Amino acid sequence: MATNLPWELDAAMLRRLEKRILVPLPDPEARRGMFEMLLPSQPGDEPLPHDVLVEKLEGYSGSDIRILCKEAAMQPLRRTLAVLEDTEDIVPEDELPKVGAILPEDIDRALSNTRPSAHLHAHLYDRFNDDYGSHILK
C-alpha cells in the first residue's frame, strides 16, 4: 500500500504494514531522467533547457514534475488552437497548421502555473519516518 499522507493512517493499519519506507523527492539525476523522458528533444527543434529545469525544480515531487511537463507540452497545442480560433473560415483538414515544438518559453509558462506540493509537508514526512519508518540499512 502507498499513501501520500501516511500520518493519517490509524494504528491498526500501521500494524499491518510490514515495511514503511519514505521515498524521498527526486534528486538531480532523477529529475534529469524525468525531463529527458517526459520532454524529449526532437531532431531539428531547439534543445530544451534540462539543466536549468533540474536546478529550478529542487523540492518538486515526481508527480509535480509530471504535471509541469504535461503543462509545457500543452502549450504548442494551445498556440495552434489560438490560430484556428482567429480564422473565420473553415480550414480544410489537409491545410490545418502543424502543432509546433515545445519551446523554452513554454516551460517558463508551465513553471509560472505549477508549484511544488510535497515541500509543504516535509516536516511531517520526516517526523513520520523517524517515528514509524522501516530504517533500511545499506
UniProtKB/TrEMBL annotation:
Transmembrane segments: none annotated. Residues 52-86 form the AAA ATPase AAA+ lid domain. The keyword Transferase does not apply. It is found in: Cytoplasm, Cytoskeleton, Spindle pole. Its main location: cytoplasm. One of its GO terms (molecular function) is ATP binding. SUPFAM superfamilies: P-loop containing nucleoside triphosphate hydrolases. GO terms for cellular component: microtubule; spindle pole. The keyword Isomerase applies. Coiled coil: none annotated. InterPro entries: AAA_lid_3, MT-severing_AAA_ATPase, P-loop_NTPase. This is AAA ATPase AAA+ lid domain-containing protein. The lineage of its organism: Eukaryota, Viridiplantae, Streptophyta, Embryophyta, Tracheophyta.
